[in-house]
Structures are given as structure tokens and as C-alpha cells.
Amino acid sequence: MPQIFEDTQTAFALKSDAELERAYFLFKLIGNQPLVKIGTAVTNFAIKSHLPVEGLIRATVFDHFCAGINEKDCMPTVDKLWVKGVSSVLDYSVEGKDTEDPLDNALAVTLNILDFVKEKEAMPFAVFKPTGYGRFILFEKKGAGKPFSASEKSEWDRVVKRFEATCKKAHDLNVSLLIDAEESWMQDAADELVEEMMRKYNREKAVVFNTIQLYRWDRLEYLKKLQKKAAQEGFKIGIKAVRGAYMEKENERAEEKGYRSPICSSKQETDENFNKTISYILEHLDTISLFAGTHNEESSWLLMQLMKKHHINPNDSRIWFGQLLGMSDHISFNLAAAGYNVAKYLPFGPVRDVMPYLIRRAEENTSVAGQTNRELELLKKERKRRKI
Predict the structure, then answer these.
(1) Helices in the chain by DSSP H: which ranges?
(2) Mean pLDDT value across residues 113-123
(3) What is the pLDDT of residue 144?
(4) According to the model, what pLDDT value does residue 199 have?
(5) What is the CA radius of gyration of the chain?
(6) What pLDDT is attached to residue 295?
(7) In the predicted model, what is the mean pLDDT of the chain?
């Protein structure tokens, strides 16, 4: 792999010795699969039982992977990253709720973040999850073409209004908006809604970005169809390309219900699908803007080479690299130092409400072969360089 990703001095420049040691300790824990399972079960039990564990969680895993409990709490991290040329995406990481109050609260938080983003150069994007704006079952029914009851129809109208209010505000403020992807059986309805927002608000440039999870073998074909529509109808496409976050759930449901899994048959196939997709996007950059959410060094390097091949400047506003806070600093900070557009996702929210997100992070790191080992290898290298 190219030397650009081996520079640990640049990668960990913002970490104190104590923070470097905490990161090393956490990734050693995450690398132990049985320990992660036990830790997850114990943490879930402690939270459900209202045991006083928030202080411990905050001092360890929360402060490594999250930027704070509210927007203001995140600002020191935003400013710190920006010193090194790394932008921030504030991500209200409270998982989907089933009642209206939290849904309206998620809308209020996102609209508030848009105001923050407009005033702060270091924050070029806002983001939200579809199930932050509406109940999962509504998206599922809508995508399956099942009829809504009168109350569900009224509820869905409110979901559409939340999307509309957010996308309109992003457009009016000239701020980009990332909309996350979720499970495949609710995604069709979300895709349809996001496409409508693109058609409306992406007339001049990509403001609204949909997310495609490329561990799904059908997503490149979906993008090609969307590109044809955009070319015919005169709107731009924003795409956040990621590998995906719900693999076990997807495979289990497919097996249980007896349909073909939407997930690629192997890690290699997923990697090829991701790389083909970013290649396709760079061939259609007149229509599609890209936010490449990847912790994969080979895909990051490929994107850099494709940009050179197509004579695209590293800081072209249509191409961004993105990683999560607390992960892959060797990619983020070294790319930023080389002049590329890089943003860290900064999850935030009340400690208890963000725990499902944190647990998923730990489980994903445990299941992705090589990811945790690579983090540990680089942290060891930096500890040795600092003589810790």
C-alpha cells in the first residue's frame, strides 16, 4: 500500500499520549470477539437497568467514537479537526424511535445543525437517518406497496414534510445534506423520497445526497438508472457511497423469509462493487457528486488515482472522502494533508441514546477482517515512534 497511509505522525498528530493509549486499549478490546459479545450484553443490561455506568462509558468508548452529547459539546472537536484541514459532519446518532416526539426532535436537531453548518466553514454537510424522521414500519409498508390506514397516511405525510423542510432549508442555505441508508426492506421508500427531493432541490448542483450501500449487489444498477433519469430530467445526483452496516440482519432475514440475500456473496465481491461504483461516478461527474465513505485503503487509493486519471483537482468540491471519528485516522489526516476534501462523521447525542450506535460500531469492527488489526498496527507504530 502507498506510503501516504503509513505516516502515523500525521495520522495521530491531534492525539495526546493518553488518548493514543486509550485508542490502543479500546481496539485491543474490540479485537477480542468473545469480549465484545460479553461487553455488549453487560452494557445493554446496565443501561436497561438504569445502573450508573454513563460516566465510565463516556470516559472510554463514547469519548473515542463520539464528539459530545449536543451540538455545542461537539465544537471543540470540530475546531480541533479543522486545524488539520479535516471537516466535520455532525451526526445525531440516536437510533430510530416509534413515537412522534423524538421524530420531531430529530427534525429540530437537524434544522439546528444546518444553521451551525452555514456559519462554520469546517462543517460542509448536515446528515440525518430516514428512520429518525419516520417509523421503520411506514417505510417498509410504503416500499412494499401495502396500503396505509388513514392514520398511517397522515403519519407518512408528516414524514414527507420533515424531509421537505430539511431539504428546502439545506437548499436555501446552500449547504449539502447527506441522507443515510438503512435496511433493504425499508430502503425503496426512502430512495423514492430522496429522489423526489433531488429532483426538486438538485437542479444546479448536488445539495441532497442519497446513500448507497455497496455490499448490496443491486445498488450500482440502481445508480445507473438514477443517472439516466437525472440526465433526462435535468437534475444532479449526490451519492454517499459506503460498503454497508446491516449485513448480518440482511442475511438472517433473507434466510428466514426464503428470498435471495441482497448482500454480495463475499468481501471481495463487495470491494469490487464499491470500486466499480466510484469508477462509474467519476465517469459521470458532470451529473453525480461523490461522498466516498470508506475505511478501505485500497478504495481510497483507487479514488485518488481515478481523480488523477480524469485530471480532477484534489480539492474539487464534487468529491469528498469520509471516515468515522475514532477510526482510520491514517486515511483521513494523510489525505487532508495532501489537499483532498476529507470529512469526519462526528456522532453525538445523549450517552444512553447513542449506545446502540456504539455497540454496532464495536460489532462491525470485530466482524470486519483486518480492520481492527490495522488500527492496532498503526497505533503500535506511533507508540514506538513516541517511545511510549
Answers:
(1) 8-11, 17-30, 33-48, 54-57, 63-65, 71-83, 100-119, 130-133, 136-144, 150-173, 184-201, 219-233, 247-257, 267-283, 297-309, 329-337, 351-367, 371-386
(2) 89
(3) 96
(4) 98
(5) 20
(6) 94
(7) 90
Q: What's the confidence (pLDDT) of residue 360? A: 67
The class (CATH top level) of 3-386 is alpha beta
Instruction: Please indicate, yes or no, whether the overall pTM of this predicted structure exceeds 0.90.
Output: yes
Specify whether the backbone of 367 is left (phi greater than 0), alpha (psi in -120 to 50) or beta: alpha
Could you tell me the three cell numbers for 302?
A: 483507487
Rounded to an integer, what distance in angstroms lies between the CA atom of residue 193 and that of residue 16? 44
Residue with cell 461527474: 285
Higher pLDDT among residues 52 and 289, named by residue? 289
Length of the chain: 388
- Region 87-92 average pLDDT: 94
* Residue 179, beta-bridge partner list: 128, 210
Burial tier of 143 (Cβ tally within 10 Å: 0-12, 13-18, 19+): middle
- The crossing angle, in degrees rounded to 10, of helices 329-337 and 297-309 is 20
Helix (H, G, I), strand (E, B) or coil at 58: helix
Q: Which three cell numbers stand for residue 39?
A: 461487553
Domain ranges of the chain: 3-386
The Cα–Cα gap between 286 and 284 comes to: 5
